[in-house]
Design goal:
This protein is α+β, with helices and mostly antiparallel strands. It has 2 domains: about 50 residues; about 100 residues, Head domain of nucleotide exchange factor GrpE (Nucleotide Exchange Factor Grpe, Chain A, domain 2, Roll), CATH 2.30.22. The protein is built from 3 helices and 6 strands; from the N terminus they run H-H-H-E-E-E-E-E-E. The strands form 2 sheets. Strands 1-4-5 form a 3-stranded antiparallel beta sheet. The longest helix has about 45 residues. It is elongated and about 95 Å long. The N and C termini lie far apart (about 120 Å).
């Protein structure tokens, strides 16, 4: 039989059977109960809590990453959608000059310029650029730029004349309409 040989914690093995000693003084790890076993249980609880916290942290991180990915895609789409804004504004200036030439008196020039103007407008519309309707509308500072206020028969705050057309690209104003606004009757 195995016995403690005087050194603490070491047990002797019975040479005949190969079993540890069954003395009351023999230490066998499976039979030990007490503070160490309680610590093992609380250690498991601690590990479970830590695992739970890590899972929650992982889920938050995954959600944050998903939100970041969606925001990046949305920002990229917006950037692509408005990438030609500067070019569009330059084209709008050309259309303004065509419109001025169309209103001149020369009829042959007038027809040719009208066709070019239609072509430009079609090209702009294909890229989501459309003119802002102003005359007869209520003045809106998000769309119009008031150049002058004129007394008129129209209700106060109504756009009565357009000096320069405004344009929007999809849902964004790329150029404000320069307009005259009614002061009302004086």
């Amino acid at each position: 039989m195995a016995r403690m040989n005087g050194e603490r914690g070491k047990a002797h093995i019975d040479e005949e059977t190969g079993d540890p000693a069954t003395d009351p003084g023999t230490v066998i790890p499976e039979q030990v109960e007490g503070p160490d076993q309680i610590c093992a249980d609380s250690g498991t609880d601690t590990l479970r809590e830590e695992l739970k916290e890590l899972k929650e942290k992982y889920l938050r991180l995954a959600a944050d990453f998903d939100n970041y990915r969606k925001r990046t895609e949305r920002d990229l789409d917006t950037h692509i959608r408005y990438a030609i804004e500067k070019f569009a504004v330059e084209l709008i200036e050309v259309i303004d000059n065509f419109d001025r030439a169309i209103t001149s008196e020369n009829s042959k020039t007038h027809e040719g310029l009208e066709q070019i103007s239609k072509l430009f407008r079609t090209l702009l519309e294909q890229h989501g650029i459309t003119p802002v309707v102003s005359v007869g509308e209520k003045f809106n500072p998000a769309v119009h730029e008031a150049v002058v206020c004129i007394p008129s028969e129209q209700e106060e705050g109504m756009v009565i004349e357009e000096f320069c057309k405004g344009y929007r690209m999809h849902d964004k104003i790329v150029r404000y309409a320069k307009v005259a606004v009614s002061k009302g009757k004086e």
